[in-house]
Each structure stands twice: as structure tokens, then as C-alpha cells.
Amino acid sequence: MDLNAWFAGNPNLPPALLGSCLLALLAALLFAVSLRSSRAEKGEIRTLQWYKTGFPLLGPPAEFQKAPEELLLKARKQLGNVFGLNLLAKRFVFVLGPDAHRWFFNADDGTSASELSFEKAIEALTRHLFGAGLYRFTAWNEKARKLIITGLASAPRLAYYTTVIQSHVERSLAGWAQKGTLDLFRECSRVTMGMMIACLLGDDVNERFPELADLYYEYERMAALPAVAQFLWFPSAVARRFKRIKGRIVEILETVIRERYADLEGHSGRQDYLQFVLNDTPGFPEAMSLHFLTILFAAHINTVSTMAWTIAHIASDEALQRAVRSEVRSEGDPFRAAARAPELAAAGIAIAANKGELPLLDKCMRETHRLYGALFFVREVQRPTSFDGIPLPKGTTVAFSPFVMHRDESVYEKASTFNPHRFSKPALEELTTKRQYVPFGSGRHACQGQRLVTIVLRLVWTTLFREYDVSVEINELPAPEYAGALGIPQPKSPVFARVRRREGA
To answer: Which first-to-last residue range defines the signal peptide (predicted)?
Structure first.
């Protein structure tokens, strides 16, 4: 309505009525301003700010492809704890800080009233890795959660896996000592996958298919390349190589699983995880190869880099290496040489649960997870919701960055420096309570293999620093390469190390 025209067309209004109209109009305007101000103060109305560069549209994806970690730190500094990031192929809304941690991880996507879905977000980002069928086996996926917990994380199962891991560690480290100079991250990949394949599929699979460990190393390194993650449909040399690698992995897994199904009774005495699954739930043959493809990938993606970065930092600091050696050679160390498998499994469970003051080695592990935290986790909005006053429509991909949280200088003094002593038990409890440390995820989707991974890492590190001297052939460790990293990143250049058995060890 044009008020100027209305008043002009009614010049003879009584003064009292004219005054009342003006007062009513003024009151309405004041109310609107007051309401907007009140909502703004309460955070009820906010507009999502998108990260921008000097090159519209193409700038953010180009910058992200080059140095994603630097982009996220810059975006938070410029835009705060909530911002949008348009990467053309995918749009994300990043939520950061303790409140975001609480909201992001505590949303329960197992009910009809869910807000955020883990599965749908992961499916969209990993379809090129595992195929579209992985999350279609609804009945199997729910059963698989329980199988992983009972089959990979229960104390009796862990005690068995510990015996398998011990024999692998001793053989592998003796081989390291004979190599002279070795590529630390590549060798940690081989050791890790050798142990995981033995625990999950049986040691005979390592003997029959020795290439499987190296295939997973290449599989991870290629997984986030643009030619694979975004343009796998285009017949580039990179895409063709990735398909060959994945095809061979699946072929090996299907061969092993098919042979087990052909003689379930004959293999019933085996104790590996595959046999545990078949003994418990033999009715899902079509889902088995995908199940093991993903579990072995998950075992590789963070375990390898955690193992290697921790070794590299300890080996490059003589004082720290002496302190670690003194600790692991003491009778009080929970992973001492004389400990039996059930004791070692119990120690791994306790360390994973942060019970008691952490030994120095485990503080080093926590610091590795902090310093080289995953770039981001994702969820998909299932029904319209909001965070911090910003509307999030259904289908929005929400991301949370452990990396950004762990590099916050207001929380972590000298956040870019490796300092395991920052993780005393009280400090770790405070960081966890305040939701400022998130190495293994949280809530329903916390890492289900955390206990097994802790035992793997601890046995490798303890045996290595108890019985060997380790040095790295570099004055300063290279920076992590977050471009293309799906989990804890590898270094931008190789880290070469030398391992020598200690006299009398």
C-alpha cells in the first residue's frame, strides 16, 4: 500500500484520526525493529556466509585442492564457526567449536526423529570407493555394527588377535633392521596390513596374496584424487589404474570368502574375524566382500599414518626417545615383554578408554592424533533444522573439522608443535569434557576398531623402542599433505628411517 498516495487522496482527515494513524504506523515500525533485534541477539536469524576468493566460483575449489587445511583455518578466521564452502562438485556447511561438536556427534541417526545421517553422507562421498550397493543392505548393515563390536572389540577376541599381532611385529621389525634405510610410511603400511589381514582373514591369505597389503596402500593414496573422486567415469590413466587396483582387491576378497562358504564346516575351527562372522551370520554372502573391503580400508586409512608419524617424532627427538625407551623397558609398562596376551588386550582396552594416567607412548599417540587430525567428518541433514541460527535444509551436507579444532591456539599452546606432555590425564579429561579433542569420532559413530588399533600401535611402538634404535635421515620432518587425504595425512615427502637392533635386546 502506498501511504503517501493514500494520505494525498484523503486531505480532509480529522487531525485526531491522522495522529492515530501516524502513531500506529510508528508503533508497527518500532515493533518490527525490536523483533528483528531480539531475534538477532538470540541467534534466531542468521544468513550463512560463504567462503569467497578473488576468483568467484572457481577460486574456492582450486584453493581447497591445493591446500585444504589452510583454507579451513582461513575461513574460520574470516567467517567464524559456521560457514559454507562451495567446491562445485559438492557444497558443505562447516560447523566448528564445542557447541558444534555436541550437536554434530550427538545427533542420533538411528531413529525416525533423526536430524543428521552418517550413512547417507558417507555414501555420497565414498560411492567411487565402495560402490552404490554398500548401504543398500539395510538388514546387514545393522547386523554388521554388532558383529564389529563383538568380533573386533570384545576382550576374548582381542586376546586372540594380540597373539597374531605379536608374531607379526617380531618378524616385521627384524626385517626392518635388515633393510638399512627404509621408507617409514610405506613400511608401516605393509606391517599394518599384514597384521590386519591376518586378524580379519587369516595369515594364510598373506601368504597366498602377498600383493594385497601394497594394493591397499595404492588404493588409499589414489582415492581422493580428482580423477578418481570426481571424474572416475572419464577413462583417464589414473581412473583406469584405480579401477584395476580396486578390482584386484575385490577379486582376492571374493576368492577367500567363496572358498569359506564352500566348506563352512571344514573351516569352523578358525579364529579369524571372517570365520567369526560366518559362524554367527552366514546368510549375507552378497554383502561380505564389501564388508571386508571397507573394514580393511578403514584399518589402513588412519592406523598407518598414526604409527609412522609417532615413530618419526620420537626418532627425531633423542630426549623423547630415551624417555620412551626407559618407560617401555620398565616392569611397570602395561605392554612389557613378559605380559601375556589377555593382559595386553586388557591394557589396550584401558588405554583406549583413557583409564588412569597415560604412559608416555600413549600421550605421543594422542598428540599425533591432535597434530595430524582428520580434515573433516560429514553428516547429511535428514529433515529441516538449524545450527546457531542458520537454517539447514534437508539434504545439506554438514562438515565438522577435527583439524581446525586441534589447531586452535586459544586451547593448545604452540598448536603446531609436537608436545605429548600436554596430554596428562587431567588435561585430557578437561579437553574431552569441553569437547575440544576428537581423535576417534564420538557418539554412535566413534571408531569401533579403536581397541584393536590401540593394541596394534602399542605393540609395534613398544617392541620397536624397547629392542631397537631408530633414527630418521632428515633434520626436520616434512609437513603433512592434506590435499587428497581421507584421514590422517601422509607427509609431503618421504620420511626415511634406519632401524638397528640394540645390543643385548
So the answer is: 1-40
